[in-house]
Design goal:
The chain is mostly helical. The mean pLDDT is 93. It has one domain. The protein has three helices and no strands. It starts with a helix and ends with a helix.
Length: 93
């Protein structure tokens, strides 16, 4: 049981890193720091989009953008943090 709890916490942490990487990449694209015509950047962006969008889309339905700023990744990171705290406290270690 200990290993399963640790695996869940690791997966939540990796998913959080993917959400953060997606946000940073979107900022870099928005400020023209990276070019999306580059195949590597495009592949990374598509991968991050496909991983994070299923979790971000329901949040975006209920939370509006504030002045063009999308806070759905922040809300998702908070939810992931709460989930990891629940797993860490409730799991039988």
């Amino acid at each position: 049981m200990y290993e399963l709890g640790q695996l869940l916490l690791l997966l939540i942490q990796l998913y959080s890193y993917c959400v953060i990487a997606s946000v940073i990449l979107s900022w870099l694209v928005a400020f023209n720091v990276v070019n999306t015509h580059n195949r590597v950047v495009s592949a990374i962006g598509e991968f991050l989009y496909r991983i994070t969008e299923p979790a971000l889309a329901p949040i975006r339905r209920y939370v509006p953008a504030f002045g063009g700023i999308d806070i759905s990744p922040f809300i998702l990171l908070l939810l992931l943090w709460f989930l990891s705290m629940i797993i860490a406290r409730r799991w039988p270690w």
